[in-house]
Amino acid sequence: MKLSRSLIAISAITALGVGALAGCSSSESSADGGSGSSGAALTIAKPDGAITTESHNPFLGDSSASKYGYAKVIFEPLALVNPTGDLGTTPWLAESVEWNDDYTELTVVPRSGVNWSDGEPFTGDDIVFTFDQYLDGRLADSSGLNYQGATVDGDRITLTFGDSKFTAQSRVLHTPIVPQHIWEDIEDPNTDPLTADGLAVGTGPYVLSSWTTESVTLAANEDYWGGELAVPELHYVSYGDNAALTTALASGEADWAQAFLPQIEDSYLSVDPDNQFLVSPTAGAGTLFFNLQTKPFDDPALREALAWTIDRDAYVDIAREGASEAVWNVTGLGSVLADEIVPEYQDAEYSVDVDRARQILTDAGYTWKGDALIDPDGEAVSFSISVPSGWSDWNTEQALIAEELDEALGIEVKVDQPDWGGWDAARQEGTFQAIIHWLEDTGNVYGLYTSTMDPKWIVDDKAQFNFGRFDDPAVTEALNTYANASSDEERAEASAVLQTAFAENVPAIPLGAHPLLGEYNTRNYVGWPTEDDQYASADPTQPAIVQILTNLEAK
After folding, report:
1. pTM for this one?
2. Which of 160, 220, 428, 509 suits a disulfide with 288, CB 3.0-4.6 Å?
3. Which InterPro entries does the UniProt record give (predicted)?
4. Model confidence over 413-463: pLDDT tens digits?
5. CA angle (245 as vertex; 242, 248 as ends), nearest 5
6. For the chain, which domains are there?
7. Rounded to an integer, what distance in angstroms lies between the CA atom of residue 409 and that of residue 30?
């Protein structure tokens, strides 16, 4: 399964209306938003603590617009890439998007009849201007787009890139488009907070109404191109931690959130039959990474034995409380990419098979002294596994792995829970033994294999992925071929090489899909993504929030 190359000319999207869950204070503050709606306001919450500095710049990762997530309902992208479901692409500000064969050129047709929220018309010039800012350094290319320029032929705009964007389609398509008539006068868009009057102008369904350190309010855009909106206002609030967020969701003080809530059945779902929780598997996975440069993980036999011992179902059922899907295939690929698995590995699944694991170790020269596993050098096998303190799901998985490996194989596993800074330094510098981490999610098989086997991530001896520092020239060549191929056939051939290398070397162990999560309620609105209709994830921090908001209808 891969992202769609071309999705041509969908007719103008009819906005059925947005709205959401609202209860208590949020449903009572339902002033007319100006779009003809008088429904309940929607409070979108995060557990990130106070967000004290005002900034509406969508290109700044530390702006309040990015941290709260409200940038995504003001500034819209060319298209929306669904990271779950069918991995499809829905044109948005573009009426159509089409990649060339090697994914170095993207041709788009701007949507007609769209206005900026200040009333000025949106045109293709705004698209070209937005991307051209990368050419002269006005905008830092933090997403690695390697944009080279644009050509215009009638109403068709072709954006050119210096390398293939097959594995980074969403980074291109999700670039927030900004108005040239405002941004051309901004001296430094890399730093400007857009807090002066009239700067926070977008094409999105909502416009900024008020900002305080406690709450940000957005009102429905009266002239939204998608039509009338059901929800008149959005309130963005950040709580101190997950416990406070859970209480707010359960009481109806908050309506929509993205968070892992421990004991979610008792703390949230059972409180109100309208409370809903959607888990959307992605191509990414929570993954156990090994330091392949040091004992005990420099031995592939030891890694393989662990792969036959660690219980992925326990990870899903206990650590993630059901909010995941186990990954058992030896290629490391989960259900979202199941049809990408080559035939010889389609049915090649790990299981918890302690006898097989012990035989692998015995054949490799390991022995046991009492219950303790002894390596071929005569040393007891032990290692530490590191996850930041407070990451409750992965902290639980640390304890599960420690118990499983001690009981089954006689390996002492030390649980390490440093602060984030210490953990981050160790993963980059390679001073850890094992860590649990996420993958670079590219929406295709490349994400897993570049994350675990690609030397490109090691820069100045620091790792951003491939923390185990796996290095095999044949694998590197296959990764480069996959990323830059001009045909599906080339990518399939490269994928086969990568799947074989992963199955044979076990450079890491994916445990379970790293899903997008969403808590919401159906008290006031219908039209939410569901398990049976995952047209988007229910995560309000994702770009597809605009798709959800235009799909909701008042009950």
Report:
1. 0.85
2. 509
3. Peptide/Ni-bd, SBP_5, SBP_5_dom
4. 999 999 988 999 999 999 999 999 999 889 899 999 999 999 999 999 999
5. 155
6. 39-74+204-274+522-554 (3.40.190.10), 75-186 (3.90.76.10), 282-515 (3.10.105.10)
7. 60
